Amino acid sequence: MRLIRSIRADIRAVFEHDPAARNVWEVIFVYPGFHARQCHRVAHTLWNWRIPFLPRLVSHVSRFITGIEIHPGAEIGEGFFIDHGMGVVIGETSEIKDNVALYQGVTLGGTSLQKKKRHPTLGNNVVVGAGAKLIGAITIGDNVKVGASSVVISSVPHNATVVGVPGRVVEIRNPDTDTVERLPDPVWEKLENLEKRMVDLEKRLGAVQTVDEAAITADPSLSETTDESI
């Protein structure tokens, strides 16, 4: 019964995250993310039973069929959803809590060659955008949103939004009041300062050119002097 409830939670997750889903049969038969999740259930069970070779074989066949690679050792909670899914990679020591959504091209990767915790831990209600890379034994808090193509290499607090390369927290939502605190972005501030300086320099250069043109108009001989100096 627990297995049936868990599978139903996966189906509900599809309807919650994908408005294109029309009915249960469509989810069961044509959604590769759902297929990869169910294959991982089998592989993970065999992995926990310490059966050699077979868990990796199930994972490999699932990858061949769905384009989604989930290591049998990864731990995945309830209501897991992978949209489209092609290119998704989930490493061995990854931990994924409940109601997590991943989009195509997401990688939960590791940096260490040691046999220890080396992949990310994702909290509840996390959404990871297409192409994002989460690297190392970092912790992503509950209700976090990771922007598409971001590269996250450090832990993220609860209720945050992360974007960029490397990923940085740009806002934190207060779930009690549903208000958003915008955090300063040093990179964006530097770009704005550079833009302001460029505008200021253009104005100064324009003012100098205007003075030179006025002086040449008043005394044409200055133009000859300028040409000779060049």
Give your account of this protein's structure.
This protein has 230 residues and is α/β, with parallel strands linked by helices. It has 2 domains: 2-182, UDP N-Acetylglucosamine Acyltransferase, domain 1 (3 Solenoid), CATH 2.160.10.10; 186-229. The protein has 6 helices and 16 strands. A 7-stranded mixed sheet has the order 3-6-9-12-14-15-16. Strands 1-4-7-10-13 form a 5-stranded parallel sheet. Helix 3 packs antiparallel against helix 4. The longest helix has 33 residues, at 186-218.
- Uncertain stretches of 5 or more adjacent residues: none
> What do we call the CATH topology of the largest domain?
UDP N-Acetylglucosamine Acyltransferase, domain 1
Count of DSSP-assigned helices: 6
What level of helicity do the residues show?
Answer: 40-55%
Span from first to last CA? 89 Å
Structural class: alpha/beta
Count of discrete structural domains: 2
CATH superfamily of the largest domain: Hexapeptide repeat proteins
SSE succession? HHHHEEEEEEEEEEEEEEEEHH
Described by the principal axes of the CA atoms, the overall outline is elongated
Count of β-strands: 16
**Average pLDDT value?**
87
State which percent range the strand residues make up: 15-25%
- Note the quaternary state here: single chain
